[in-house]
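Title: Prediction job returns without error message
Component: structure pipeline
Severity: low
Priority: P3
Assignee: unassigned

Description:
Job completed but the reporter wants confirmation the result is attached to the right record. Sequence as submitted:
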Amino acid sequence: MDVRSLAYVVIESTEPQQWLDYGCNILGLMVAPTMPDDGNVYLKIDTRPYRFAIIKSEHNRLAFCGWELADEAGFSAAKADLQAAGVAFEEVSAAEAAARRVRGLIRLQDPSGNGLELFWGGELDYAKFISPKGISGFETGVNGDMGLGHAVLPAAKLSATHDFYKDLLGFGDSDYMHFKFSPDPDDPGQGLHFMHVNNPRHHSLALYEDPANPVGCVHLMLEVTDVDEVGYCLDRVEEAGVPIVSTLGRHTNDNMLSFYMATPTGFAMEFGTDGLQMDWEGFTPTVTSLPSLWGHKFNMPDA
């Protein structure tokens, strides 16, 4: 499959208005002007109609990552590949696809139970992005072809889930890390696969060996184009009392200068800049033992 980008995320929330406040006043996102006033919250960062859809629900969780395919032929081939592999999927109605602002859409789960949507024909509304916090722009490529950023998802079945994205969906390996949190030599630790799709972003997906994650996400990442915007956001976070999950730091594998904060749904949001843009021709996946060059001291807030 030729997956091009992480185009959107769908978040279920018992209180979508919390995301409206957080998205606009902390992250600097814009209320999507071409999306319906239907009680849900849609947030925009570029020429796409929205990148975040926060849907009223009885649950608080990341429900779906929306992955973009190149065209209708690729979409048809993807469905045939899934059927041949015995992977069940739901082909949603034309009306529901239109509500997502795409031309064709299927819905399925990976082996660890994470929800994903594969689609083709994503719309551009070209409505000018005007950040309520003055952010000049987010790094999403040309017409949004690099996607909104990246998602790190829990993978209780790490090996099977990695194989699903690599062998079936066509994602490529970028990097691998393995963590141990105790000195016990028998501690098996936890693996973390970083994976890219067909765009220059170092990784659009990472899979973390996490057997119990009630909110369906470890973190999402947004990348701004100006380093000062990271500092301004950090000031807003501290002033508002939003829990800081990790201090400012620079990652080794993708060079991202970032910090992490809590979101209203309970997973983290990485807010950064200066991420690597890769040339995948002839690339050899790496194995990294040090997650950050400096900083990134993690302190998970109490649930």
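Comment from assignee: result matches the submitted record. The helical segments are 16-25, 72-85, 94-99, 158-168, 227-240.
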